[in-house]
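FAQ: What does the model actually see?

It sees only this:
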Amino acid sequence: MIPTKTDFSRRKFLKSSSGVALFIGVAGILPQLISCKDPNKIKKQLAQQPITAWVKLSEDGLITIYNPAAEMGQGSMTSLPLIFAEEMDADWSMVKVEFSPQESETYGSPGWAPGSKLMFTVGSRTTNSYYNVMRKAGAQARYVLMNSAAKHWEVPISELTTSNSYVHHGKTNQKISYGDLVPFLEMPETLPDYSEAQLKNPKEFQLIGKDIPRTEIPAKVDGSAIFAIDIRLPEMIYGVLERGKLHGSKPSLTNEAEILAMEGVLKIIRLDYAIGILAKTLEQALNAKQSLKIDWSESKASRHNSQEVYATYEKIASQNEKGKVIIEIGDVAKARRTAAKTYEVDYKNDYVYHAQMEPLNAVVQVAEDGGSAEVWVGSQQGTDTKLGVPKILGIAPEKVNVHLQYLGGGFGRRSMNDFVEECAILAKEMAPLPVKLIWTREDDVTYGAFRPLSLQRLTASTDAEGNITAFSHSVVGDGGNLVASAVANDHYDIPNQFAEWREASNGIRLKHWRAVGHGPNKFAIESMLDEIAWKQGTDPLELRRKLMAKAPRALATLEKAAEISHWSKPSVEGRAKGMAFVEHGSLGTGVCEISVDRSTGIIKVHQFWIALDAGVVVQPDNVKAQMEGGIIMGMSSVLKEQITIVDGQVQQSNYHDYQLLRMQDIPDSIETVILESSEIPEGVGETATPMVACAIANAFLKLTGKPLRHLPFSPERVLQALNS
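And it is asked to produce this:
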């Protein structure tokens, strides 16, 4: 237990016209009541004790709940506070939501790994990681209110109940609102350390599981929502960087004097990989950037050609030695030697750009003495909540204050801090003036951090009855071992399994893209299953039923998807259906119906059906929206998106030559059925996207008898497959 200071005695109830903050710890830390009337005292208290400030209560009944996660359209600004409010028995109509400070020791979730406390909005882990944290903190806030009411009325706390921001005493027919309790709030000596069994039974939920509108949507609709790019500060300076098209190349500027003489240009900053321009306006900075004359060095990527590298990857996959082993179950080699039949197929996927809507940007203001800094940014946060700024400036982390803003899309790209660090470098040169750094779309496309290009070599063995007895999966590619995510077949009963990652580095900047390695790897696995079923003359549904016999939750999604898509009913002429199962926290089976224009090679997706088991669903309507968005983004990457590199240089530069799905290309309907579950909530933001490629490929195989094995399915590749 953390001792309290004299000024903040547990027994002293703090009265304030502006309310009190209930600081509730996530790990049994004693809560505090702090008067909101004295912000200096609040700051002092927060600096002295590692406490978690989850909720603020005002006498007018307004309840402010703090959201520790980034909000980039996935709904965390509603889902996490909703979980807290459920256990607090708060009147949701009186709830206001704000971002929490970026302090991982206080607001980090222990749900990532034992002993960790991270504020990291990636991997569809947010709701899962914070579910029990927010429930417990909400229940503790409710206890504080009930305890205070019990003392105020001089009755046992056991006789009290709560509902809709009121404390009730049934015996005397008294009730008091949470707001009216503010003058009487008193902190108990101890707080219950609630176990899961002591929290609400899901059957008692009043908020969780209901279609409650997202809190930030009205502001986004009327334009009042503030994104990082909207930040304007007095005397703000603008910065841009010229990074070149060759990843890893070093610049030599040849016309510095000319640039410095241009209107508005204040300073040139030389980085190891870029030339920075600081100017009074963004227009002036961009004009100067266009006038830069730079000689670029060679780099590791200089001779890299993305469409030629697969031949090398095939050779790497054929090497006898093992790569980094991810899974090894049973004896694949032995099963293969005794197999009736063995299948081996290579699947490929090209580089993909993140294509987030809001350009990368940040604002940093360094104090005149260089000893502190303020940061305004839209970030997916990370292992370092200060986003690398303290190291750049050479100051302590507590001297950096990060103001998290709404994100105009992340998809993994904003889990990198490169753009924030660059802004800090520029701001250090202009202190105490604030500096806004903006990446242009061309900057981000040409010098982006792409979804890795990779090759998946799959080998499957079957016995005389057609049962899959062994399955091996070799991933060849760069970008760290997460390119091998989703290679496990946990829900398929295959006795012998092996999976590995073999690294192949080409000097290209890479970052995991929505669903990480699940997209390419599930494409390979699920396509392989359908190719086996096709060669066996087996219904892909029946093949998966057999494999899922010991995985009832996965099987339930398969059966429901088959039901809602009318799988057994033949499609109209010229169309066919394909299915795919994906596990990414949530369990989901998707079915799509497609047609193909055999003269142009254009695939049209007409319908998509999804059956989803996501555990307890906090916001059903938002889950369906995530499924729809995931399907559409998946279709865009599968049918349109491609980064090509020739001699180390990206060939695309903006959306005129990096094609995205258009509105006329989306399915006629996307239907999602959510299966009831009492399991802990799982992520949904990355479940739908990986099922798209394999569902389309499997529908194409059923329709044409031809496999598609290389992403994206461009018209040229489709025509090549049709004519093969």
